[in-house]
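in:
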């Protein structure tokens, strides 16, 4: 197994059979070796620097009905909200004062925020904060609309593929959504010039090792600049409420494998990892992650952006509590930096 991990670190890719072997025969020694190699790789490229992004969850209204998501349109128990343009700009103002130089605008696929409104919002943010990057995470759009977002000044786009297996994708989503369209979006975004982020759920219902192999192989082909993975955590108001949460150890192991396969990628220590275990963020960083995304959203709305049960939004997850985050990262030998944190090939 160590030889396979060394091969991944050197070649930045493996075959399906090799990934299968790494996932099927993993043990504590393999976990530890992958973690060590991934941490060495991240340190060689980024030192002890962790990039921060200010997350603004501006709408929890979504037209989609994904079976795993608490924001799904069929969830009538969800307390819906949509931030105004003024509220979003105020979040950016506060974030800039706190040292954030990337703003991530994330929301459901909310028709109330038209493409024109998104373009205007992005251009206003870029005009007010020309030294900042703007990341969008608002779902599937046509290539023409993505081009408009890019021309308005958006720098990055996050769109997780969730699973790279078509049959598995169909088990997680309603019939109107399909994997081919999701992949089309990702390739369009890359061709336009966005720094693109993708990723997948670990331990989602019906997931197998073969599905995870497909995810790793798809990311090898796509080569996104950002990769976000996190454990599946059930939401009480979804069809998957009774399924168990994903395995944190497997999630961390996959973070390490992804760091070795994508040494220059921006890999966040996701909120889901921190929500599942108390020191999850720190563990992800020690396994090769190099990004954290504290929440800049108005505190009154944070609890309503409920993708899954017990999603964290306070303490070190809150942008205004940056000192808490700094202390926790310092305890493991890392620090945040006031930097756009653009993707670079070292």
């Amino acid at each position: 197994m160590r030889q396979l991990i060394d091969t991944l670190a050197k070649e930045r890719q493996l075959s399906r059979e090799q990934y299968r072997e790494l996932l099927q025969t993993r043990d504590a020694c393999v976990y530890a070796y992958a973690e060590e190699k991934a941490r060495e790789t991240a340190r060689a490229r980024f030192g002890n620097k962790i990039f921060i992004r200010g997350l603004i969850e501006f709408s929890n209204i979504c037209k989609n009905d994904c079976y795993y998501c608490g924001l799904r349109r069929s969830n009538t128990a969800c307390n819906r909200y949509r931030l105004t343009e003024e509220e979003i700009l105020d979040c950016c103002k506060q974030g800039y004062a706190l040292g954030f130089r990337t703003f991530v605008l994330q929301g459901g696929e909310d028709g109330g925020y038209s493409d024109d409104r998104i373009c205007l919002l992005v251009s206003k943010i870029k005009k007010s904060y020309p030294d900042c990057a703007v990341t969008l995470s608002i779902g599937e759009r046509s290539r023409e609309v993505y081009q408009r977002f890019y021309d308005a000044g958006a720098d990055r786009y996050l769109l997780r593929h969730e699973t790279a297996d078509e049959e598995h994708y169909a088990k997680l989503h309603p019939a109107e959504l399909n994997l081919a369209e999701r992949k089309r979006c990702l390739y369009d975004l890359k061709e336009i010039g966005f720094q693109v982020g993708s990723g997948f759920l670990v331990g989602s219902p019906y997931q197998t090792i073969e599905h995870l192999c497909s995810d790793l192989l798809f990311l090898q082909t796509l080569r996104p600049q950002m990769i976000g993975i996190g454990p599946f955590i059930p939401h009480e108001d979804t069809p998957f409420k009774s399924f168990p949460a994903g395995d944190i150890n497997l999630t961390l192991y996959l973070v390490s494998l992804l760091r070795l396969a994508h040494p220059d990628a921006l890999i966040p220590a996701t909120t889901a990892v921190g929500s599942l275990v108390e020191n999850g963020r720190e563990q992800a960083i020690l396994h090769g992650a190099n990004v954290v995304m504290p929440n800049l959203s108005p505190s009154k709305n944070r609890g309503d952006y409920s993708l899954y049960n017990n999603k964290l939004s306070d303490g070190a997850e809150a942008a205004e509590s940056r000192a808490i985050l700094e202390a926790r990262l310092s305890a493991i030998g890392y620090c945040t930096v006031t930097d756009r944190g653009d993707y670079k090939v070292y």
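note: DSSP finds 14 helices and eleven strands in the chain.
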